[in-house]
## 1
Amino acid sequence: MSPGSLGIEIQTDLGEQLVTQNVGEEIFSFAARIFPICRSITGDGVRRTLREIGSRVALEMREVPTGTAVFDWTIPREWNIRDAYIRDGDGAKVVDFAKSNLQVMSYSIPVRKRLSLAELKKHVHTLPEQPDLIPYRTSYYAEDWAFCMTQRQLEALRDETYEAVIDSSLEDGFLTYGEYLHEGETDDEFLLSAHVCHPSLANDNCSGVALLTELARRMIGLKTRYSYRFLFAPGTIGAIAWLARNEEASGRIKHGLVVSMVGDGGGPTYKKSRRGDSAIDRVVTHVLRHSGLTPTIEDFSPYGYDERQYCSPGFNLPVGLFQRSKHGTIPQYHTSADNLSFIKPEHLLESYSVIARTIDIIENDGAYCNTIPKCEPQLGRRGLYRSIGGKKDIAIENMAMLWVLNLSDGAHSLLDIAERSDLPFEVIRRVAQVLQAHGLLTSCATGAAS
Ligand code: ZN
């Protein structure tokens, strides 16, 4: 795979912005397309979302029946919702699901009743500290019903009788997830996983779903060493169901990323796999160090998204979590403020570029041997100082050349050299290609990241 093959042209001069072909806009427009759909951990919202993904890549939809045991969990009943509202005494809708699907707690059981304000308030969630925002609430595993509204909406309700209607169903059905495999030269896999269970929340996680869909689409036709498994599943129970059905196959996963909240301008944040020293941990750390952004690298913790399942001790897969702002740390998190104005094409592009660069390193790391290891080869005689790079890159690339020649003893991969020299992988690799073309390097082995 060559640089640029994922739609980005990786420039060698540090600090330069990546050149792209509207990747950020493409991701944003797909995120906007799936944003209105009311998703939950089961139901038609997930299916509709997967069908949208399936219109771009050949996604396989899987249905797991209610009641199926998946490790210590059981697939719940399927939830669907058609409408919901609260009417006041005049018949006016004071809360309307049709205007925002966040206004009904996900998995609310069906309700149709008249009740006093005091009774209604027992079934209302608000955010008193953020009085203009609707909270996102769920009750998957405890039968309940509730409306979510802004604190100002609640305060405006008069003391009268209301009609509360939730036209939902909670019945035996299925849990649905989708997967797409980009087949590489080997069966070794790189897992890319996004949760698809949140309703109209843009960053968490329409952004992650859209980014991975666009990445999968752009990989069609590319020759890769690894196979790439894209998994779009409801959070927690979906990942658990996938692992339960693919316990043996999960051993093929050599690298993995959970991708969520990748459209805001914060972070980036990378949480390492439980192993802490996996190739994916090294590669993402390296990419972020040279991204020009302000990254935070965190050690593994057993709280977060589906890395919790992939990194459970019985699997212990090399899967990290990539986000921009860390979940739970921003005021928009799990509120109506996580809307389409919160995510931006330029941030989606940056996030995409981090993942594309990560794949590029995973695909292209390798170890070389210096063919003239006794003292430095005479580079000037070969015209190498003049042949590499643009003017302002010369100092960096000459330094990279010295590092590559010195450490290319078969025991250090290009990633090792990039880390040791603190130079970007793509500079190290490009220099290695030039040195190889001049007969000064020979390929010895696949790299540390491979
Ligand atoms: Zn969430």
Note: The chain has 13 helices and 21 strands.
## 2
Amino acid sequence: MTFNKQLHEYVNKIIAKKKIDMMGKDNAFYTRLMSNIDTIDHLYREIYGHNPVADLQYEALINTLIDAHLCRAKDLRDKDENKIEKGIWFLSNEIAGMSLYVDRFCGNLQHLSQKLSYFENLGVNFLHLMPLFESPEGESDGGYAVTNFRKIDERFGNLEDLIHLRKEMQKKDMYLMIDIVLNHTSYHHEWAKKAKAGDKNYQDYYYMYDDRWIPNQFDEKMPDIFPESAPGNFTYDEACKKWVMTVFHRYQWDLNYRNPTVFREMMDNILFYANLGVDILRIDAPAFIWKETGTTCQNLPQAHTLLRLIKHCVLVTAPGMALLGEAIVAPKDIMKYFGTGSFTAKECDVAYNATHMALQWDMLASGDTRVMLAAQHEILQKPYGTTWINYTRCHDDIGLGYDDYMIEHAGRNPFEHRKFLKDYYSGAIWNSPAKGALFSSNPKTGDARISGSLASLCGLEKALEENNSYEIDLSIRKILMMQAHSFFLGGIPIIFYGDELGYTNDYSYLNDPRKSYDNRWMHRPVINWEKNKKIEEVGSIENIIFQGTKKLITLRKNLFVVGDHKNLTWLTPHNHHVAGYLRSYDDKKLYGIFNFSNQTVYLTWYAFKEHGTFKPTLYDYWKEKVFSVGLDNDYLVIEPYGFHLMEPRD
Ligand code: GLC
């Protein structure tokens, strides 16, 4: 804590006008405010110091922090305290998540409250609810084009329903994650409407230009995010006769964070979400929040300063709420969202392990672990105290965004290798078991990402069509191996809804003109609860995948060593088809061994002797079987797409 007399007096003056019980019930808040205000001040001045309304908005910002604290319900304040006592709660091995669209999962929020036993049965105790706030039906980008940050879209219910759900979840010790769509609003948001109507104040909330002079400068370096469905980064608005920055879709207007009023308004929304009882706030697309001509307008230093500012404001008012930065960018850039230098572990608490996710798909297609291993020196840089979301699939596409040198390091040609992966998953290779599609192909650069559900990309859809029982069995093994590999890496595992029982692609989106332009909808299923009943039918595909997933979650919850203690070591690649890692904590160890090839493979027992004291046996939690560690010239035999979760024992 830095003591800055002038600043502290300034804050005290603001506080004096509020009903704050500094020595009593608000003491912890007051202490947090005073110990963070110096940092908040620095970060704020760094961005807004020269802005004419900086001071006015600064005072408003402090008032926002205080008011949000005063509105924070007693149970949430108690939960904050509990979390602080637990240490860094989100590093725990006991958290297992699911991400879902409320309407497609079960209709609305009220129904979701009645589905909690489904999650309990599976072991899921953390829910990521896809965007819930008001968004126009046809032009919503799955809810990521918000018209009102405070009103739940009628399709899902209302705020009371959400609060009720959160309270029911809290009774069951479940955690909640929702999104704040920070980078843009819908062009139907009231700010945008006022801007369109010519209100200069609100035009300054967005990037709006009379002609193409500045837009052209931006466009020179800015890549296209959706080159097929929404090329370019600006859209001409007839109503106000201006070019508006629209990095994503033309109906998503980018917010202008150079304007301190925008920052303060959005900070207010963030704290509003905190007070709904959110445990982790997913900051959507943080890489894009600062724009500068002559750059790609992604990952700019000012974006990090803003995130740090948000983090410190949240620390003051809602210390129990963690921040997830949804930065799906190059490996070394992702790491920076955890904070750097004196802000290490003081920016976003959580990030998507997008690099590793994509690398798992790389390994599955190629049967080769070398590209994945070449990327680990970046991924392992993650600072202690922060964590990953580990996942195999989410609502978005799979981008092959890892660096070329990682592919070269594995002895492959980056262009050819990426082409192979795209062909493999989009079915362009005739004998590929995968059924997916290319998303956002960019003819200018040759880039493309991949859509498709976990099951379809693992071959289940094709195997079912061909009624090929061997391939069905193989695809189930792939699904469970992919999940196991990500569940035990360290970080919060998040299952995408439907994947827990093997939903294949849903092509009905093609008949809906509001969705047909975006093939990410193929892997966003509408849950059919009749099908879901099959999880009870012993031996059904749904049952095998559900029970397998459930077993993995149960194991994870019982193994403290797999929490995120920054305790992951990759094994020497004795066999390049096998990805092997060691998780260790004190004298506890767990080996995760995964065969990414369609062949039976052999791994020398020496692999288990390289790290620490030798133990003669290995207990495999997955197969519930004991293995004796053999001689170095003898092998552990691993079936195609088989895996082991082994603990060394005497
Ligand atoms: C994030 C979301 C994605 C959305 C984009 C624009 O990347 O995950 O679904 O299209 O932001 O909001």
Note: The pocket of alpha-D-glucopyranose is lined by residues 141-142, 144, 181, 248, 284-285, 326, 395-396 (CB under 6 Å).
